[in-house]
Amino acid sequence: TPPAQIRNFCIIAHIDHGKSTLADRMLQITGVVSDRDMRAQYLDRMDIERERGITIKSQAVRMPWQIGGETFALNMIDTPGHVDFTYEVSRSLAACEGAILLVDAAQGIEAQTLANLYLALENDLTIIPVLNKIDLPAAEPEKYAKELADLIGGRPEDVLRVSGKTGVGVEDLLDRLVQEIPAPVGDAEAPARAMIFDSVYDAYRGVVTYVRMVDGKLSPRERIQMMSTGANHELLEIGVSSPEPVPSKGLGVGEVGYLITGVKDVRQSKVGDTITNARKPAADALAGYTDPKPMVFSGIYPIDGSDYAELREALDKLKLSDASLQYEPETSVALGFGFRCGFLGLLHLEIITERLSREFGLDLITTAPSVIYQVVTSDTGETVTVTNPSEYPDGRIGSVSEPMVKTAILLPKDYVGTVMELCQSRRGTLLGMEYFSEERVELRYNMPLGEIVFDFFDQLKSKTQGYASLDYEPSGSQEADLVKVDILLQGEKVDAFSSIVHRDKAYAYGTMMAERLRKLIPRQQFEVPIQAAIGARIIARETIRAIRKDVLAKCYGGDITRKRKLLEKQKEGKKRMKMVGRVEVPQEAFIAALSGD
Ligand code: GTP
């Protein structure tokens, strides 16, 4: 297809505003998916995505659309819609010339949509504002059309009104994509430059890489080069998705498609990287490539220790499809053998643990999420990177800095007071407040990421009846008065409960954990103190009183078989016990304490 007949676009929308439904309708109206094959949310491949109604991996689909006898190729690039995947979103946007800004006509715009809209504007995309779900009785198109028009600078009457559900307005939308979005431009004679905007692991075909051609041409069987690493591969197949993969004779300027080289690991085909011809490589890679950096760390342990090998295998498999997942083996007194894992954010963590349990049938426990702390030691002055509280160089702390994020919270004005209180209690510094419309306010805070990973989102939702939305981006790091709080059972440290917290919150954390454990750990034959400590200083204490529990006392006399049975039973119960010094703790107690049940 010549560039003049190509339009590349994506859909920017908040979760649940109807992106998948609209995409489905477009596939149907353009005829690429027959009515018979249509199933809800055609593009969301992963079960877990479908169930939770979120889009994790982006994909591209090519749709034909005719205007005035001329056929255009519309390439729709699907973008993930959550804060953790900002980098992937930015690469999808970079592959487009235009974006549909899709907003629920009964909800209005949300923080995440706003963040992605700014990203799109930075990338100079043409924005087509669209209100969706106008079939809903609660829809207020007039009100939100004005909001959108004010936001992007246009007239309310230019805001399209559609329903992905009924199909109303979708044909107009397709026309406008062709009319308003600029055709791609590039140098057809130059060495090839293709940007990878997604890379998906497929059990049968290996890695399927989605690219947007910028310059030149890529053809089947030729050798290609990944510009970030210099690695060469043979192009086994290249083509377009519509939406099933259709091999083609190659891709040229402005085209969007997929390619297969036989690599088995998405790390060999990285989002944001530039692909060029191996024989005639381009001089410069396309701008914007970075390696994904994990921001949140957590220990993942099998509840049954004998599942360790399976957990390792499962992680090895997930890594093939997820370039941002990191892990290394770790051991814990309380939890045994497991892995320290790095994630892009909390949702990423949740997705991985859920996939581990669902796709691999593993029962797991995760430790409280932690962020990356930089500690400058007082003795040697070196900088130590700490992603696990147990590595904290206790007693040698010169200074500690923690990662900060700029957060944007969009909320109805009635909740401003409550949310400001919440943000202040999480050590946030107010950066600004803006009335977005008459009822809606945007609050901007600089906040430690460590405070956000600790149930901030849940608190925000519950304090605003679900009306607030949140977005954040890294904003460097900042020194803070942080301490490590240890939890001791009879003087022995229980590593899984150590946590790095602000000094002002150390006491609250210590008492909460000590109390939880007191309630969960069964009495022993001796008294067991539970203490919370900062270094050698005890800041909180609870005591489990002693009990004399002799199972044999119940059997008077000589019924030896009964005695044996009881002993046997007791032994079985002990299997799942962990020893912390002299103290026997059922693993369930640790697990319950960690999960806050
Ligand atoms: P993510 O995949 O999580 O980003 O969600 P999404 O934006 O793709 O939303 P999805 O298409 O899954 O729609 C969310 C909900 O809104 C579903 O229950 C849809 O049935 C409903 N919905 C989508 N479009 C419309 C519409 O035009 N009208 C009505 N009434 N409901 C709609």
Please give the alpha-carbon distance between the first and last residues: 58 Å
> Helix count, per DSSP?
14
Q: What hetero molecules are bound to the protein chains?
A: guanosine-5'-triphosphate
Largest sheet, in brief, is: 8 strands, antiparallel
Overall strand count: 31
Taken as a percent bin, the fraction of beta residues is 25-35%
**In one word, what is the shape?**
globular
The parts where pLDDT drops under 50 for at least 5 residues are: 48-58
Q: How big is the Rg?
A: 28 Å
Backbone structural class: alpha+beta
Q: How do the strands of the widest beta sheet line up side by side? A: 10-9-14-7-8-13-11-12
Average pLDDT reading: 87
Helix content: 25-40%
3D architecture notes:
It contains 14 helices and 31 strands. Helix 12 packs across helix 14. The protein has 597 residues and is α+β, with helices and mostly antiparallel strands.
